[in-house]
Amino acid sequence: MIFALLLACAHSVDITLTGARVAPEMASKTPWDGPEKLNPEAKGLLDSVLSSVDSTGKLAEMVGGVSSEIARPDVAATLEFRSDAEAAPSVVQLPEVANNLEPAWAPGALTIKNAPITWKSTLSIILVDKDLSSDDPIGKVVLTTKEICKAEQMDGAMTVNVADQTSGQIESVSVLVGRSAK
After folding, report:
1. What's the gap between Cα 58 and its chain centre?
2. Considering only CA atoms, which of 111, 71, 75, 105 is closest in space to residue 91?
3. Where are the beta strands (DSSP E) in 67-157?
4. Coil vs helix vs strand at 97
5. pLDDT 10s digits, 33-91
6. How far apart are alpha carbons 40 and 30 in whole angstroms?
7. Are the C-beta atoms of residues 36 and 177 closer than 8 Å to each other?
């Protein structure tokens, strides 16, 4: 069965990451962004400033309500395709999707074109939470030849559950794979 699938897929394909599902918090149980991510000293300073400016507490309440929105990651993605372990990768970087647990990219917007499928092909999907000071790695997912070929057989994007590869920080990815137009 696997051999037949690989033979059917022994050609070049175009691969697009169309979406992902990111866990609502880091594996460490801390939020991706927002005031909760501040170290205790900085959080105390922020609380002090807010309370001195606004004795009613309404500003702090408003900032607290907004924090659930800003705590979502700003997801940027990189795709790396290798036809085999020794090959130099084809790399595509996808634009950042701000404040989103389910980032989506338009089909065909940024695609790895003419990826030659071999029995050792891999597609690595690397997601990062882009921050002002330092970026947080969300995770790296690796799809094998078998998964790439299976995605090509789908009518539309295929969603792959990958939480086991990323300590649960990436729950799933969706890829669209189609035969390359020569």
Report:
1. 35
2. 111
3. 75-82, 90-97, 112-116, 122-129, 136-144
4. strand
5. 765 555 556 556 656 665 665 555 555 555 554 444 557 899 999 999 999 878 889 99
6. 13
7. no
Share of the chain above pLDDT 90, in %: 45
Q: Tokens 């990189």, residue?
A: 78
For the chain, the distance separating the N- and C-terminal CA atoms, rounded to the nearest angstrom, is 27
156 pLDDT higher than 80: yes
Q: What is the pLDDT of residues 128-137, one digit of tens each?
A: 999 877 888 9
Q: How far is CA 172 from the centre of its chain?
A: 9
- Chain center to CA of 126: 6
- What are the structure tokens assigned to 106, written together? 């338009």
Q: Give DSSP secondary structure letters for 146-169.
A: HHHHHHHHSSS-EEEE-GGGTTTS
Stretch among 72-76, 105-109, 148-152, 170-174 having the lowest mean pLDDT = 105-109
Rounded CA-CA distance 165/125 in Å is 11
Q: CA torsion angle for 62, 63, 64, 65 (degrees, to 10)?
A: 50
The number of residues making up the chain comes to 182
| Beta carbons of 121 and 146 less than 8 angstroms apart | no
